[in-house]
Amino acid sequence: MKVFVFTYLVLISMASAMDNMTDLLRSPPSIPLSNKKAIFVDFQKADYQLNYDYNARQLYIHSKIIFYQPEVGSPIYDLLPTESEIYIDGQKSSAHLVYAPGNVTQYKVLGDQLAVGLHTLEIKHYLNTLVVFENDGVSSAFWMSDLSDRRYLEQFLPTNLEYDRYAMTFYVNFLNFPKQQLLYTNGVVFAGQAYNQYVVQFPTYFTTSSVFFHTSFVGKFNHFTDTYKTIDGRVINILVYNNTGTDLTSYLKLTKSVLAELENDYGQWPHGNITIYAAGSGGMEYCGATMTSYWALPHEITHSYFARGIIPANGNAGWIDEAIASFRDDRYQKRMTPGFNSSQMAGHSVYSRYTDDNAYTLGKRFMEYLNYQEDANGGLKPFLKYYKDKWLHVPYFTQDFINELNAYTGKNYQSDFNRFIYGINQPYRFFEGSTSLEKSFGFEDQHENPHHPKLNLEDLEKLL
Ligand SMILES: [Zn+2]
């Protein structure tokens, strides 16, 4: 028995060490500070207790995170709201903001220095962002953006960066509420022990950009549910909801047709159920979920394969999924040359955390160029399916994409990527005549993609 237990523990620690190795391979380099070193770590597991108190009109959050630290120093995490209390391995601690080299972004770093190994971080904080108490209950959501810095889960909960997958559980308590609260989420929801208590379990491949979470009270939203049989024979649930009187059946119909198209091109739906908030505006993707307009719906569902199926490990990899989704939106065109001189879509700081918005135009054109180059082999689509299958639920760098493309095609596209995507020795950008789609969107002028308008908190509060 002892031997068995020992073997079991060794296997567990080996499995966990392997997880550390793969995720940490794509973390940014640690940051030397004046008197210590700030270290990127590997979250193993996070339990988030969300206590919505109707009488006090507040949301109080208690987070407990187990992480692995690969070298001696002070661990990095991120959280925008101010912490009320911090404990590390049971001892009171503190945290402060630290800049990444070049001031590209900021993180939170713990005051204490820690040894290599597993540690437990506990944080308590109040959250006001996108939390609105109303007469009948509370409307609250953890909505994100990949087009600005620090706009993933760190706006709401202590979390890690995009390179890190970890097991998350929400324990959601609605205290003293007049009505039942409902959850709209891409996790699996279990009823808690008491009325208006829920436990939400998210898949272990989820990262800081994955979670869709929205709660409101009974009666605020209309829902429509249906099922869909995937090509691998699973029956998944489709939930479509909104509060505007929009025709939900049209969203449902479009969802089904896009699912069929994408499964045909790229294989089985890479998540569990699918949740669509038919908000009528916005456009942001999550794993198997989106808040979207009708018009942007196909683009957002595509992101469940490219962006939230395969997952960019940092800001420099974010261009790939927008380029692929735009390539699809514009019906997989071909072009002999990329039609621009160069870009730095993957040439920003290794600490960069958001997507270069040239991805929609220049990135799309580069995919069209690859599509032309691979014309004799059926175009770029077969490679994209291969890449999605091989890297499903694994965070990747742009260089991983290039290496796989070279290996798959037997060609060497490195110099093309160096020039058009990394911008190595090519500081100038030149834009040739636009396609009709680009013109109709006014891409060059607004530098913002209509699929993903940059909504501020005021805009988002109206959608709660
Ligand atoms: Zn997009």
Sum up the structure in keywords:
464 residues, alpha+beta, Immunoglobulin-like, Zincin-like, 3 domains, binds zinc ion
Rough shape?
globular
Kindly provide the name of the CATH class of the largest domain: Mainly Beta
Mean pLDDT: 91
Task: Indicate the percent of residues in helices.
Answer: 25-40%
End-to-end C-alpha gap: 54 Å
**Quick one: biggest sheet?**
8 strands, mixed
* Total beta strand runs: 24
Topology:
Elements: H1 2-24, E1 31-32, E2 37-40, E3 42-53, E4 58-69, E5 74-77, E6 83-88, E7 91-92, E8 95-99, E9 106-110, E10 117-126, E11 131-134, E12 137-141, E13 167-175, E14 181-185, E15 188-191, E16 197-201, E17 213-217, E18 222-229, E19 235-242, H2 248-266, E20 274-277, E21 284-286, E22 289-291, H3 297-302, E23 311-312, H4 318-329, H5 362-373, H6 381-391, E24 395-396, H7 398-409, H8 414-422, H9 436-441, H10 443-446, H11 457-462
Parallel strand pairs: 2-5, 3-13, 19-20, 20-22, 23-24
Antiparallel strand pairs: 1-2, 3-4, 4-10, 5-9, 6-7, 6-10, 8-9, 11-12, 12-17, 13-16, 14-17, 15-16, 18-19, 21-22
Zinc ion is lined by residues 299, 303, 322, 325, 451-452.
